[in-house]
Backbone:
């Protein structure tokens, strides 16, 4: 039977404790750091050569869906009652909103070095030492809202702008695609500064600290953020009945994107699964 | 200096300058060891002219605040240069060789250094090697010609130097880059996909 992913604001005290405990357990066993490494490894930018499975590509959504499923499976091996909650950042918008509770993600980083000093993932507790990272810093960092030049989380209407696009993705299938649900949600804009980070990307920016880098998985808020992104894919499918993942077939010979993106029925590295097989998760989980 | 891109005159900053940085911390002095920054055109090929001009674009970013025209023209230059350049920057810190182009500055107390290394063979004209305090900074290219660093992965910058400054902005006090050498795996993945094999990487 399908399990339920809930709004993080609706978890009971017991559910919050079990979710956090499961995260700490897989961290202690070394499993968590495998997820951090995988995310670093599979970030290929679109100005580089080769296949882009995870970002700046149509498979941004199925790749992260599978990634989230794998994390959730690891958590459920520890405690079968646990599911990954989602962070609706159009509702929980401040630096003291529900995700940042003492018994969930903990709070903002301190001013001097952005170190998170509250909650279960505070370095001083000894349960969340960063081993796979972009820097040699061993503690979790955050800069919620970016203190030196404040920015806001994306709004409902910014999310709606993505959701109302009836086409999943369009050529050139990368970070420069101006239309299509996928890039409007992933959030690669044009130009510089604040206006160029949209939806998904803007949230990484708003959290700051390790969430900004290739090792963003080091902050467990990553999963709550991506569960909400994943929910948007489900909402988009519900709204645009019959709309499918694109491209349906690989780009033809002579197309610059040939061999660089994953089409609907191609395998999505590092897994033995296709976007087609990841479009309907109804048998595995649903969102409350 | 004025260079032309497709008949459009483009102004770009040159020479050593000292100016307040965006954050208002420290001073910037940009130095070039290459004498070819005055290339008259940006080429769409991958020859040394393109590389040198790319280096100029990378280095020539010390700017007075509010110079919007200059900003706009530089953006144009940067993207034209980007189209001309081959991808991939992986850090290393060997001394520059003759003919290499470099930029170097101290930004917010961190030493940023970039070297463009020509390649005589292969599909790429060369690579940018950028370090912060001697540690390699992994940079990636975006399709629009801008640059991302591993430190700041969800935003791109017009030049390798700007991407390096963006990374410095996010490095906490006392933190240093870790020598990860992850490298883009795209080409490796491409081979695997085309060869029908599956990688041995598991999440």
Residues:
């Amino acid at each position: 039977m399908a399990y339920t992913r809930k709004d993080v604001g609706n978890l009971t005290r017991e559910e919050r404790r079990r979710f956090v405990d499961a995260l700490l357990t897989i961290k202690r066993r070394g499993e968590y750091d495998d997820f951090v490494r995988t995310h670093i490894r599979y970030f290929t930018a679109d100005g580089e050569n080769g296949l882009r499975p995870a970002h700046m590509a149509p498979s941004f959504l199925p790749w992260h869906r599978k990634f989230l499923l794998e994390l959730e499976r690891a958590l459920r091996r520890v405690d079968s009652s646990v599911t990954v909650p989602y962070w609706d950042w159009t509702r929980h918008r401040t630096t003291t909103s529900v995700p940042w509770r003492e018994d969930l993600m903990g709070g903002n980083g301190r001013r001097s070095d952005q170190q998170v000093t509250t909650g279960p993932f505070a370095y001083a507790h000894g349960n969340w030492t960063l081993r796979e990272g972009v820097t040699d810093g061993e503690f979790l960092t955050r800069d919620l809202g970016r203190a030196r030049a404040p920015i806001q989380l994306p709004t409902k209407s910014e999310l709606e702008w993505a959701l109302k696009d009836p086409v999943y993705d369009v050529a050139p299938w990368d970070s420069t695609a101006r239309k299509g649900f996928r890039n409007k949600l992933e959030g690669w804009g044009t130009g510089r500064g604040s206006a160029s980070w949209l939806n998904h990307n803007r949230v990484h920016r708003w959290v700051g600290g390790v969430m900004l880098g290739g090792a963003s998985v080091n902050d467990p808020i990553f999963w709550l953020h991506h569960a909400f992104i994943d929910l948007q894919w489900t909402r988009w499918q519900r709204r645009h009945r019959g709309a499918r993942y694109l491209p349906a077939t690989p780009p033809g010979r002579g197309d610059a994107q040939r061999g660089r993106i994953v089409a609907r029925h191609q395998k999505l590295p590092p897994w033995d699964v296709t976007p087609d097989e990841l479009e309907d998760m109804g048998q595995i989980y649903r969102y409350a | 200096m004025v260079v032309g891109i497709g008949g459009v005159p483009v102004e770009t900053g040159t020479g050593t300058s000292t100016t307040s940085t965006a954050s208002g911390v420290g001073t910037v002095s940009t130095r070039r060891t290459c004498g070819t920054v005055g290339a008259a055109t940006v080429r769409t090929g991958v020859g040394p002219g393109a590389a040198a001009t790319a280096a100029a674009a990378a280095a020539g970013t010390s700017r007075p605040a509010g110079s919007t025209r200059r900003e706009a023209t530089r953006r144009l230059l940067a993207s034209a240069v980007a189209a001309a350049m081959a991808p991939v920057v992986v850090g290393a810190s060997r001394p520059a060789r003759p003919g290499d182009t470099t930029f170097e500055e101290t930004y917010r107390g961190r030493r940023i250094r970039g070297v463009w290394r020509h390649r005589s063979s292969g599909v790429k004209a060369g690579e940018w090697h950028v370090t912060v305090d001697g540690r390699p900074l992994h940079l990636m290219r975006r399709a629009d010609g801008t640059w991302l660093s591993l430190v700041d992965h969800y935003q791109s910058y017009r030049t390798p130097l700007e991407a390096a400054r963006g990374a410095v902005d996010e490095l906490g006090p006392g933190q240093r880059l870790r020598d990860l050498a992850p490298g883009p795996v795209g080409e490796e993945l491409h081979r695997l996909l085309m060869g029908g094999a599956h990688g041995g990487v598991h999440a």
In short: Chain B has one domain: 2-177. Residues 1-96, 181-185, 189-203 of chain B have pLDDT under 50 and may be disordered. The CA atoms of residues 44 and 84 of chain B lie 4 Å apart.
